[in-house]
Each structure stands twice: as structure tokens, then as C-alpha cells.
Amino acid sequence: MVQGDVPSSYKDAMSHSDSDAWLEACQDKLLSLQETRTYVPMHVEEVEANNVVGCQWVFTLKRGPDGSVEQYKVRIMAVLVRLTLSTMMRCLPL
Fold first, then answer.
1. The pLDDT value given to residue 14
2. Would you say the pTM of this structure is higher than 0.85?
3. Where do the domains of the chain lie?
């Protein structure tokens, strides 16, 4: 990955040459979500007993008019149930 490229996953971001900047952006986002009480960290053992929505990091760069990186931006997007075609076919009435 070339410096300035946008990572496609958290793992990519942490192996990127700008990993410190991406980590800081992730930490800022988590702190912001915790302060607004829209995110509650859970242990893996708690997931089965609760109605939990999965999530995925989305990374973007804010660039200046000259193309330089002005800000590392991250979002956490909800990931709902991923159905495969075979799972969907089993759910259809015959």
C-alpha cells in the first residue's frame, strides 16, 4: 500500500506506513461514540446473550486543494446479517 492510499480494513490500516495516524483516528472515533453512548464495547462471551449488530471500519482521507492529506477520517458502519444465496433459497416458501 502506497502512503496516502486508503486502507480497506482495520488490519490494512494498522500495517500502513501511516498506522499511527489511522490508530489515532480510530481511537478518537471510539471515544466520541462512547461519550455519546452510541457504542458500548462488549466481550465476545456477551455477544451470544445480547442482540448485537456487527460493525466494520471505513477509512477515508480528507485532502487539501494541493492533494496533501489534511485529515484521516474513520467511521464505523453497522454490518447486518450477511445472507448467502443458499441461505436465502432455504428461507423461500416452496
1. 94
2. no
3. 10-91
